[in-house]
Amino acid sequence: MRKLNVFESLTLNGYYSGPDGDMSWAYALSADPEFQEFVKRNASDAGMLLFGRVTYQMMASYWPTPVAAKNDPVVAKGMNEAEKVVFSRTLKTADWVNTTIVKSDLLDAVRTLKQQSGKSLVVLGSGSIVAQLADAGLVDEYQIVVKPVALGTGRTLFEGVKSNLGLKLTGSRVFGNGSLVLNYGPAK
């Protein structure tokens, strides 16, 4: 059975996106070779990537480009080669290589994917999908990258979650650029 992991960047005050979906804060930190190596290693072992439409379109507009290949060749290679699923009822086509559009029920589709063999399932961004999966108890691990930034407004990661999520800290790591990675699993 596959595990479902969430990888999400958050501000200190808990936002995964700023006003109008702004994510520039997540990439505005000074360069940190150790953090860059961490990101490269994650991208190399990614597994099947799961996205909502908005995050998918943002990622698909960057990672397959020559600019991405030049700026971050290891991550671009991992992102482009990974099998990808985008959950959308409105998206007609998915031009990014190795992408499947799923229009059926998110929770049923993810339960089916988890029952299959293969690498882990990884949700990148896609906050509204994370909240639904969390509320259904389908997430096995949260890897939260807390960035040393606070925003005036934005959207919180667990926006819309109806139940209490008991989590336990399973690991942490601090980077020179001020980012903090926190790993959580279900407390059950």
**Assigned CATH class:** Alpha Beta
> What's the Cα radius of gyration?
16 Å
Strands side by side in the biggest sheet:
5-4-3-6-1-7-10-9
Q: What is the multimeric organization of the chains shown?
A: single chain
Poorly predicted runs of 5 or more residues: none
The proportion of residues in beta strands is 25-35%
| Helix content bin | 25-40%
Number of helices: 6
Domains (count): 1
Distance between the termini: 18 Å
The dominant shape is: globular
CATH H level: which superfamily? Dihydrofolate Reductase, subunit A
Please give the CATH architecture. 3-Layer(aba) Sandwich
Helix and strand string, N-terminal first? EEHEHHHEEHEHEEEE
Overall average pLDDT: 92
CATH topology: Dihydrofolate Reductase, subunit A
Structural class: alpha/beta
